[in-house]
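Lab meeting, item 3. Inverse folding demo.
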């Protein structure tokens, strides 16, 4: 239709009896996730660049609730409140009449309790409205349909060509306003949606592809399922990264233990335990992800029970602390800094030892090594250092 002004009418005046009573009021004010159903619906339209104005048709009793919601919305779009009527048809008519003084070219009419409408669907409906006809999002009926009588199935209904209607439904404003005025004056039987009024008035309505997620929240179960869905979607994945560093002096000896692997060498690492700098650094990295101090807090060198202890004890304890805090170890990375011994021949064994100790897959473990280019205490072969990084996800990651 070219450049047009587009307004949206959000119908939200119902009492929601099928959803049951709730302290928040009618279902459009019930919270799903962290916000009310209607607020989420309004956000979808307020965030669409083609919508110039929004009218919310609400029950007169809800004006105070609506004022608070609109204040919290902080929307740059113009949003007007219109009093609803006894039926949806009357409510929509009231919304259309309220726009008549500054009539848009196109109007979208949407159920306030369809909060999952997407920007793409809104755009598809707008694009399908023509100067002489409206547009209706719809989903082809997937299930076999049965007609029943007195609790007994009497007929299978051919579902070909049958669709479930959704909103927003879009129309040229003047055409749908005239159709509503005529229906109000001439029809005693209320219509269930605006497309049916358009059909009655001889206005063609194009079908556009709807969306399965664009559901109307009708019952308490619908609201509960939507709440659960949003809490799953909105929940932040709590990924934490910890770093650890350790260094031990080299002294005369016949082997070093690095990342759980004994390596024959002409020197040994000096320490209260087996002085495995790789495991010590990784232990600190894991403890850092849940604020559990460092290796010295849990295994003080002043305690004689840890003299000569294998460092896999420390790493296993860190794993246990992380698990008790709700963490799942996703990755462990260790860099060993030494001039000797050569690490490459032992890297696979080191990775396997770490993976087994932490209970993670081998592909989640990395061991690297570098020299210090003969610079400093490492370069002079006076000690070996290690830097470790651990990534842990906390919370339910199932």
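The presenter then showed the designed sequence:
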């Amino acid at each position: 239709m070219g450049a047009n002004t587009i307004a949206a009418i959000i119908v939200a005046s119902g009492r929601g009896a099928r959803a049951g009573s709730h302290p928040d009021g009618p279902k459009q004010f019930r919270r799903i996730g962290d916000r009310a159903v209607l607020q989420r619906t309004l956000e979808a339209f307020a965030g669409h660049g083609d919508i110039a104005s929004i009218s919310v048709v609400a029950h007169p009793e809800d004006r105070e609730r609506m004022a608070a919601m609109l204040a919290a919305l902080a929307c740059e779009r113009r949003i007007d409140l219109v009093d609803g009527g006894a039926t949806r048809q009357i409510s929509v008519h009231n919304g259309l009449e309220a726009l008549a003084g500054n009539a848009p070219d196109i109007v979208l009419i949407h159920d306030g309790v369809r909060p999952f409408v997407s920007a793409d669907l809104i755009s598809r409906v707008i694009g399908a409205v023509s100067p002489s006809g409206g547009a209706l999002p719809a989903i082809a009926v997937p299930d076999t349909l049965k007609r029943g009588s007195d609790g007994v199935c009497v007929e299978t209904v051919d579902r070909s060509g049958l669709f479930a209607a959704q909103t927003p439904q879009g129309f040229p404003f003047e055409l749908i306003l005239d159709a509503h005025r005529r229906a109000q004056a001439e029809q005693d039987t209320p219509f269930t949606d605006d497309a049916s009024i358009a059909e009655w008035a001889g206005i063609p309505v194009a079908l556009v592809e709807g969306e399965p997620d664009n559901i109307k929240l009708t019952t308490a179960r619908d609201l509960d399922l939507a709440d659960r869905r949003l809490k799953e979607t909105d929940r932040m994945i709590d990924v934490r990264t910890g770093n650890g560093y350790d260094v031990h002096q080299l002294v005369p000896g016949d082997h070093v233990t690095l990342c759980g692997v004994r390596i024959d060498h002409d020197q040994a690492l000096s320490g209260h335990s087996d002085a495995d700098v790789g495991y010590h650094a990784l232990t600190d990295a894991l403890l850092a992800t849940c604020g559990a101090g460092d290796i010295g807090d849990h295994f003080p060198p002043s305690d004689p029970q840890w003299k000569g202890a294998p460092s896999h004890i420390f790493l296993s304890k860190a794993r246990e602390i992380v698990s008790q805090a709700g963490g799942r170890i996703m990755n462990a990375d260790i860099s060993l800094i030494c001039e000797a011994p050569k690490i490459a021949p032992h890297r696979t064994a080191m990775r396997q030892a770490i993976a087994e100790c932490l209970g993670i897959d081998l592909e989640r473990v990395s061991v690297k090594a570098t020299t210090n280019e003969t610079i400093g205490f490492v370069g002079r072969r006076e000690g070996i250092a290690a830097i470790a990084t651990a990534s842990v996800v906390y919370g339910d990651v199932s």
